[in-house]
Amino acid sequence: MLKRLFTLLISICAATAFAAVDVNTAGSADLDSVKGIGPGTSSKLLEVRKNGKFKDWPDLIARMPGIGEKRAAKLSAEGLTVNGESFKAVATTTTKPAADKPVKAAAAPTPKQ
Q: Are 66 and 41 a contacting pair, CB within 8 Å?
């Protein structure tokens, strides 16, 4: 019985250790618990948040110096959320030549006689 109780307690602690931290509701200690956020970043986040809660990840990236898409993806992977949402990178589109259209080869110059 004691083993089961101890196992349950450890399981609960492990589950809460990996809980998401929302940037709009977290305090300084909660933000510091996210790997990649130190005391300087957490205090800056709280300072910027005084001007209004972050609407979404693009809003956080735009308003928070030092956080771009790459860092936002890392912080999200470590458990940081904005309004309960994880970061989803915006897919960039690249144009590729159409495969169904043949490319015309340049005509070879005719030799002069």
A: yes
Q: Alpha-carbon distance 41 to 31, whole Å? A: 9
How many independent structural domains does the chain possess? 1
Reference 22, options 55, 66, 62, 71; nearest CA is 55
Q: Residue 62 is part of which domain span?
A: 20-81
Q: What is the pLDDT of residues 66-77, one digit of tens each?
A: 999 999 999 999
Q: What kind and span of H or E run contains 21?
A: strand 21-22
In a domain, 87, yes or no: no
Residue 76: inside a domain: yes
pTM of the prediction? 0.63
